[in-house]
Amino acid sequence: MQIRKELVSLALLLGSWSFLSISLMAQESINLRQSCSSLRNIALPDTVISISEVVEANNFSPSNSSSSLDTPSFCRVAGVIEPAINFEVWLPLRDWNGKYNGVGNGGMAGVISYGAMAAALDRGYATASTDTGHDQSGGLFDASWASGRPDLIEDFGHRGLHTTTTNAKAITEAFYNTPLSYSYYTGCSKGGQMGLMEAQRYPEDFDGIIAGNPANNWTRFYAGAHLWYSLAMLEDQEAWIPRSKLPAFGDAVNSACDIIDGIEDGILQNPLACNFEPASIQCPLGIDNDSCLTPKQVSAVEKIWSGVETSSGELVYPGLVPGGEADPGGWGRWVTGAEPFTSLHWLGGEGFFRWFVFDDPEWDFQSFDFDDDLTFALEKVGTAVDSNNPDLRNLRDDGSKLIVYHGWSDPDISPVASINYFESVVNVVADDIQALNYETALKSTQNFFRLFMVPGMGHCAGGPGPDQFDTLSALENWVENGIAPDSLRASKIINGEVTRTRPLCVFPEVATYSGAGDTDVAESFYCAAPIE
Predict the structure, then answer these.
(1) What is the pTM of this model?
(2) Would residue 21 show up in a list of annotated catalytic residues for this protein?
(3) Active site includes 189?
């Protein structure tokens, strides 16, 4: 009987604690709701706050959407930083994790990344996004807003995210009346460029940065990728490759190179080991159908894979690599387009150079000179938009961590560019620590910067390979617990079901089949140096 009384007393006590905890949480939520409107009056440099309102759960619809995002309730703050940097900060009313997650953009930016903010909010983060200082309603690659506005180009290149981050962190700390425990950045494509710009220019902004498929060497990328791929494909009408030919092209590449890694799975583990010759599927004389490439189409592929050089032999930008050509969101969208002059490379390249560089509405991309025009472009806008500085010592010394990932089947940004950037950072570290060999410099670099190449992944997602992985949790564990990620678990999800998992390895290691077990299961692989 005494034991039963004690158990009842304990239950009542626990119930009281539970009730008290719930009451405190409810009171905290009420207080935060009341505090939300007061954020309109917060004083920030060169900033006007226009919105500070509570948004109920699952009740926010972006202006360009008829459906609501799946979110918890939050305090929404929106404002403008001079001259025209729009930004929003979302602050969870319940279960804030004490941390901040800034998110990046794609294309030419120009919009608030609401989807990425919703994902961050769902993980308990305070979060923010910016349009980087211009409106992109004219289209994904519209750049006409840059005409005569070097200030907007600077905001697009680096200042927009930095000032947004400064404001968002101040707003977050004022709202919760407590300092942030950690701050992180996540972004891909243009967002990857933004992340590396933060790492290079403003390393104090974030404790950890994730930069996916980064378009960091922006000016050379738009010249040596967007313009060059378009010029190679549109040398004349006969060089353009229709989408109907891409399945046969992709199958031929896989037939030649898929088995190199020991597994026939439709994924090239290391495309640089693939020596497929496009001429091997050249159409016989007088024949042209979807099973082969004409001589001029073969030449176009060779140019796209090799990249373009200046007249002195300097590589402007690395080319694409074999693999994933048949993916519907790959070459058919980025390289060839549905018809000539409709690829995203053509649209992006022409817009950037027409408005950022030459400021001439009549400029014709086919007139581009890879000597003089490239030099002019680098001098005019390179400093503002290129995040290609390999000196990350300030980031390292600040204790921050950097993860870069890149899909090997990216049809937009060459995956080789990310490898080249990583190696350039290793070289700086080697000089800084006076490393006796490459391995020492590599390990020292990997103490703060790790690169993950993703076999079969396209541009930020998609492609034939596993393309879903939780980089943010790995970064949190590295920053907060000192446990660096040795691999990431990637999944391929089709119609809501996981069909394949693979480990993503820290470059230069690759996933290697153990020789036993299901090849669609990550546990059947281990990370090891690639076989030379």
Answers:
(1) 0.93
(2) no
(3) yes
